[in-house]
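Protocol step 4 of 6: structure prediction from sequence.
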Amino acid sequence: MRIEAGLNDVADFGPVPAGQYELAIKEPMEVVPVVDEKTDIGGRVYNFTVWCEITAGEHAGKRIRRGFTNRTKGSRYFLKTFLERIGVAVDEKGGFATEDLLGKRFKAYVSERVYTDSNGQERKTNDLDVESIVAL
């Protein structure tokens, strides 16, 4: 049986080479509440995902995914650092508006990270260094 599945129309999902890139946030932050789990300070746990698009150079159009959570003091540090460096206000209670991320442009260093997935397979992905971010 021959199947026409459109497999010639695909994007390259491999990681980009390590380096500094100009990025923009063009889609809403994904926010997923973690059911039945509390933070180390008793609050509600969320998993946050931001997709950053490379806007210049030979890799323009490729996207870098960066995940965050608010589960621990350390994880909150990286989320807060990311937000402040791209110019998103964090209020006195530690909250922020997810829609404020849309349209933010910045430069950041992206590296390659190797990890083992749930099936025991070694995978490569990109890792956005939040401490290297400079807003544009």
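Step 5 (inspection) to follow. Residues 32 and 42 are 17 Å apart (CA to CA).
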